[in-house]
Amino acid sequence: MEQALEGKPEAVELALIALLARGHVLIEDVPGVGKTTLARALAKAVGGELRRVQFTSDLLPSDVLGVSVFDQRIGQFVFRQGPIFANVLLADEINRASPRTQSALLEAMNEGQVSIEGTATPLPEPFFVLATQNPQDFAGTFPLPESQLDRFMVRIRIGYPPPQVEMRLLLQGGEPDRARNVPQIIDPAQLVALQREVDRVELDSSLATYLQAVLAATRSSPTLSLGASPRAGMNLARAARGRAVLYGRSYCIADDIHDLAVAVLAHRVRLSAHAEGYMPTRDECEAAVRDLVARVPVPL
Predict the structure, then answer these.
(1) Which residues are in the AAA+ ATPase domain (predicted)?
(2) How many domains is the chain built from?
(3) Pairing relation of β-strands 113-116 and 119-122?
């Protein structure tokens, strides 16, 4: 995986944790830093099917989910699956789609199925969404509300490559498919088994108390007008279990919660308004959560 996205082990690890924990990922970054490469590498590593949807203002829910069409040969309606029926879905620039289309996708992500005209069709297992948005360009976009952001387990950034990696890319010429040589590590069925293993990872009462204290700190802090929800806490607990499995453990440790708190919580909280019309940056939200987590005593 890291050979496809050199110099970015944190982004790769967070994506793998979310994948193991049956979560979804929101990537906020500028174009051209490797978002598509990360999605392709993940799909290849697990032997899954990847589909990409470029979200635009005229994209309809049926363009993503699928549609029922009348088949004259058999005299009845049949369901034609949309691109969401894949193991890995790259939802590129999700905030450019209308709220209606965003909601349809996120509802399907949450329920694990697509409902068309009263008929529910389950999504494939495993199912993993990588959604992207550009934090520098909000013109003509529909920002995701808190209720929709809450559907993503983690928010990550990839960032620019280290100088030595960028130099290699420049010397190669063109735009290489860095995910091409990623080997398949497991198959989809084995990944589903690993996801079930996450359910059995132990998180003891002292760690649950620590996690609850972190959540309480976000709710009582004067720097935040919106603290972390119970769903945020459950996502952090599940991400911690996913990290334990990734590291080959059957139990969680305090570092699992501490190290994942910013990635899981920062996009779910809201900073108190400094001035009318002021929009806090992503860095400010992450710094606020990081500061609050640092103040909560870690269990020994």
Answers:
(1) 21-162
(2) 2
(3) antiparallel
Rounded to whole angstroms, the Cα distance separating 242 from 229 reads: 20
238's tokens = 């599940």
Give the end of a domain, one of 163, 188, 213: 188
- Spatial distance between the Cα atoms of 255 and 260, rounded to a whole number of angstroms: 8
pLDDT of residue 218: 96
Q: What is the 3-state secondary structure (H, E, C) of the chain?
A: CCCCCCCCHHHHHHHHHHHHCCCCEEEECCCCCCHHHHHHHHHHHCCCCEEEEECCCCCCHHHHHEEEEEECCCCEEEEEECCCCCCEEEEECHHHCCHHHHHHHHHHHHHCEEEECCEEEECCCCCEEEEEECCCCCCCCCCCCHHHHCCCCEEECCCCCCHHHHHHHHHHCCCCCCCCCCCCCCCHHHHHHHHHHHHCCECCHHHHHHHHHHHHHHHHCCCEEECCCHHHHHHHHHHHHHHHHHCCCCECCHHHHHHHHHHHHCCCCEECCCCCCCCCCHHHHHHHHHHHHHHCCCCC
In the numeric block, the tokens 């948005």 are attached to 133
- Taking each helix axis from N to C end, the angle separating 188-199 and 9-20, rounded to the nearest 10 degrees, works out to 80
Q: Per-residue confidence at 128, pLDDT binned at 50, 70, 90?
A: very high
Q: Which residues contact 170 (CB under 8 A, 6 or more apart)?
A: none
Place of tokens 């998180």: 203
Residue 68 is part of which domain span? 2-188
Taking 80 as the threshold, does the pLDDT of residue 139 lie above it?
Answer: no
Residue 9: which residues within 8 A CB-CB, separation 6 or more? 2
Query: pLDDT at position 275, please?
Result: 47
Please give the average per-residue pLDDT across 151-163, as a whole number: 93
